[in-house]
Every structure is written in structure tokens, then in C-alpha cells.
Design a protein that fits this description.
- The complex is a heterodimer.
- By secondary structure, chain A is α/β, with parallel strands linked by helices.
- Chain A has two domains: about 220 residues, Rossmann fold; about 70 residues, Alpha-Beta Plaits, CATH 3.30.70.1560.
- Chain A is built from twelve helices and 14 strands.
- Chain A is elongated and about 80 Å long.
- By secondary structure, chain B is mostly helical.
- The longest helix of chain B has about 35 residues.
- Chain B starts with a helix and ends with a helix.
- The chains are: A alpha/beta, B mainly alpha.
- The interface between A and B is medium-sized, with 27 and 25 residues.
- Bound molecules: adenosine-5'-triphosphate and magnesium ion.
- Adenosine-5'-triphosphate binds next to strand 2 and helix 1 of chain A.
Amino acid sequence: MGIVNVTNLKKVYGEFQAVNEISFSIEQGEVFGFLGPNGAGKTSTINMMIGLSKPTGGHIMIDGIDAIKDIKQVQKIIGIIPDENNLYDEMNGFNNLCFCASLYGIPKKEREKRAMELLEQFNLTKAGKRPFKAYSKGMKRKLTIAAGIIHNPKILFLDEPTTGIDVESARQIRELILDLKKQGKTIFITTHYIEEAERICDRIAFIVNGKIVKIGTLTESMENVEGEHKIKLQLNSSIKDMKEELENSFVNCRVEIPDENSCLIISKERVALFPILQLLDNKGISVYEAKAIKPSLEDVFVKVTGIEASKLKKEKEKAGK
Amino acid sequence: MQTLIAFWNILKKDIENYYLKPPNISWGIIFPLSWTLMQLIRSPGNIGIVELLPGLMSMSVLFGTTSMLAVTITFERKGRSFDRLLLAPISISTLVFAKILGAVLFGIVNAFVPVVFAAFFINLSGVNWGITVIAVILIAITSALLGLLIAISAKEVFEAQTFSNFFRFPMLFLCGLFVPIAKLPVILKPISFLLPLTYGTDILNGVITGNSIFGTIFNIFIMLVFAALLFYLCQRNIKEKWIL
Ligand SMILES: Nc1ncnc2c1ncn2[C@@H]1O[C@H](COP(=O)(O)OP(=O)(O)OP(=O)(O)O)[C@@H](O)[C@H]1O
Ligand SMILES: [Mg+2]
């Protein structure tokens, strides 16, 4: 049992099933990622968990509280960073933060202190006096995150924290998220950036068309996607004409020659390398390097979702505009 | 205590960001003011002013609250900042109460603009101010709740504006503000008695001119029933329409 437990959660809009009986749990202190393309049902899932939307079916338990029956109790301990920067345009950064803190019942002195600290931590001290509408996109995103953590929540929900902002701001935000993890927060993050999921998530759920198609730790996800092991050898000359001989000598292996000076040894089970190296050496071929080829998260994504990673990239570029 | 902090800050933010902003102050004050002056010019003679005053007060409250609330809430909904209030650990009724209170206070202030002007022309010393204030508060509360109900149904700011005009202009004529209900066509009378403003204006008529249809206690009771009903409807509709 994790700190968050979701079972058979379902959301239907009219005829359309946006979230299709998904189940998952999040451990305390973990960064759990929802990775999926536009319209996969990420925001719909978050909205049901935080009380902005009513589930059509299923159960949500957060920190031992039934989030469907007792959402106001849950809202005390969660922080929310929505997909849009929804602070008050006319109010300045400092007042925006103080107002958000007041919604959680934090007394004036304390919320002002917190707001100052956060502005400083997010490099927004100067901008704190300017109205929110005058902020750049990256600054708006940072202030929205600050507003989501001002009441020091135990569990954080971040809906696409880095979509549509420049590389440097995105990097800072990822650092901040990792800082929050270090402070012991449990973090639920949605993203359609594969690299982001790879960099900050402990476990990832791939969500497509309202369904979780794969769920697991990074290593679990990366392991054995294709059910085979790949070793790449760097050689001093081509072994094109030796492919058959190698495959005949090592019946469990397949050999591929991607380019002139290298070859791939592919096998279902792990194989001992020494005999292969010895055979090559006998033929006068030197092996300079042997490397296990692990699939990237991108490969995993393509494999489990059937969606080309390049398509996901295009979508995120569109979202960025 | 925590709820109180949230409540007070929601109210304070609305007052600072909306009700004390120059365009709204002028809208709230100039409109009743120009109407007052217009009526004064139309009907010279001091008896006219006394008879006009209750209607002018009701109108000032109605115009000061209904659209203010409908527009500001629709605006916050569109910018999604309203989600923050729905996501705060406060009950929906606390939220409704905090949101309408700003509009109610604004409406009460507006109600006394025509009174101040009328005081230059007529002697108002015989008026029971206690009951007048109660009536104004009740009109403000029901009008604000009506504005909130409109906001819950509107998606765009212009829709909120249109809906609130759709309700309040007919109310000017149906609720005995300037045309006595007795003089309305028979088919319209039942509608008049379904509108809370009728009872609020009737209290004001009673204390200021001495001509009322019902007794004050009855009117106050009916207004309270309307307020409770509208409050319940607002709460229910927010849960149904905003938490999808
Ligand atoms: N209120 C609604 N009414 C009808 N359909 C909706 C509603 N909200 C979302 N949907 C639909 O549900 C599906 C899932 O939407 P959702 O916003 O959860 O996706 P997402 O994974 O967050 O996508 P994105 O990456 O674009 O944010 C989409 O097809 C969307 O059109
Ligand atoms: Mg989304």
C-alpha cells in the first residue's frame, strides 16, 4: 500500500471514455510519472484525484483518506500545480503567493515569510513586486509552482510543469522538483517529455487512450523490452564475411553488422564473451570495445505505446507555441 | 480559525481587486446617481422624491451586486484562477459566503447613495433606519446570490453580462420599484410575487413612504426564505457544474 492508491478509476464524458479503469499506487517519497501523448487522460486523472472532477467509477485513497468522500481533508495536505498558470493577473507575485497561502489558513506573518523565501529560492525576488501578467512564461510557471508548495504540502501534483517554456527554465524547474523530492515530498507528475520522465521519475506509467499500458521503475521499463540482450563490439576491420561463421559457432546468437568496424551480438540469454573474442582474435581481428546496448526510454515508449517518439515531440512543440 | 483566514482573504482580495477599482466604483455610484437626478428632474416637487427613494435604493443594490458578481466570477473562471478556490480546503458554503459578501457590502454602500442625495431635498428624520438597513442587506444578499447563480450558468463574461441584464431590467418594472404592483397587468402579478426584490422593495416602501402591501415581518421572513433557497441552489449548482 502506497501513500496514494488508485483503483479502477474511470472517467466518462458523455459517450467518451477519457480514463479507462486505471489502477496504480505511489509510494511515500517517490516521484511517479504519467507519460503519455495529448488527450491520453493525464489531466483528467489528476483532476479526479485533487477534487476538480468527479470520477465515474473507482476509488482514490490519499494518505489514508478516501479522496472521493472526503476531498476537503485531502486538499489540506496536497499541493497542486495545474497545467495552466492560473494566478491572478493583476496582483503582484508576492501578493499572489500570500493569497494562495491564506487559502490554507496560514497566518499573515508566516505566509509573508514563506512568500519571501520562495521568491528568493525561485530567483523572483525582484519580480515579486510586478503584476503576474507582466511575467515571462518561465517566470509565470515558476511562480505557479511556488504557489503550489507554499503551504508545505506532503504530496504534490504537477501537471506538465515544463511544457512550453525554454530549456533553461525547464532545467531549473526539474532541479526544483528533485529538491522537493529530497525534502521527502511525494510527487505525481505528468509529462509528455520522455527525457523529463527519464531524468526525474522513480517510476513511470505509460498512459495512452485512457489506459495504463505499462508501469514500473525505470530499470524495469528499460529491461528486456525486446526480450533480448545486445552487445556491440568495436573492431579494427570489417567482419562482413564472417557473419555466418560466427552464427554457426554460437548457435544462440544472431549477428548484425551495422557498419564497417562494428558488430552486434544479439541473444535471448546472456552469452559469455570470451569464446567470441577468442574466435575473432584467432582470425586476426582486434576487439577494442564491448558494450551492452540498453534500450532508451524512448525505445520503451515506442514499443509499449506504438506511438512514434517523434510524434510526441511534435505535439510538445505545438503545445509550446 | 484557518477557515476564517481563508474567508477573510478571499473577501479582501475581491474588495481590493474589484470593488475598489475606479471603473466599478463609478459604475456603482454614477448609475444610481444619474437615475436619481433624472427622476428628480422629471418630477419636481418634494413628494415625488420620497416616493421614488425606495425604488432607487432597490435599483442601486440590484445593479451594484448582480452583474458585479456574475462578471467577476465568470472572469476568474475563464482565467482558471477560480480553480484555486475550489481546490482550497474550505467548504463550498464558506466559498459562496466569502464570494457574495464583497458584492453584498458593495450593494449596501450603493443603496445609500440615493439616500444621501435625497437628504438634501427632503426630511428623512421619520424613517426607521434599522429596518431600512435590514431590508437593504436582504436585497443585497438575494441579488448577489442571483448574480452567483447566473455566473454558474454562464461560460463567457458577455454571457454573464447578458444574463444579468435579462433578469434585472424586467425586475425594475415587476418588483414595484417605479410602477406599483397594483398597477401591473394581472398576468404579470404572479411573476412579481415570485421575485425576492418585490418583498425587499415592499419593506423599503413601508418604512419610507408608509405604503406597503405586506407587513414588515412577513416580508423579512419571505426574504430570508429566498436567501436560504438561493444559497442552497448556488451550492448545489457549483458542485454539479463546476466539479465535473
Ligand atoms: N470536460 C470535458 N468534456 C469532454 N471531454 C473532455 C473533457 N475534458 C477532457 N476531455 C477529453 O478527455 C480526453 C483526455 O483529456 P486530458 O485532458 O485528460 O488529456 P491529457 O493527457 O491531459 O492531454 P494533454 O497532454 O493535452 O494535457 C481528451 O480526449 C479530451 O478531449
Ligand atoms: Mg493535460
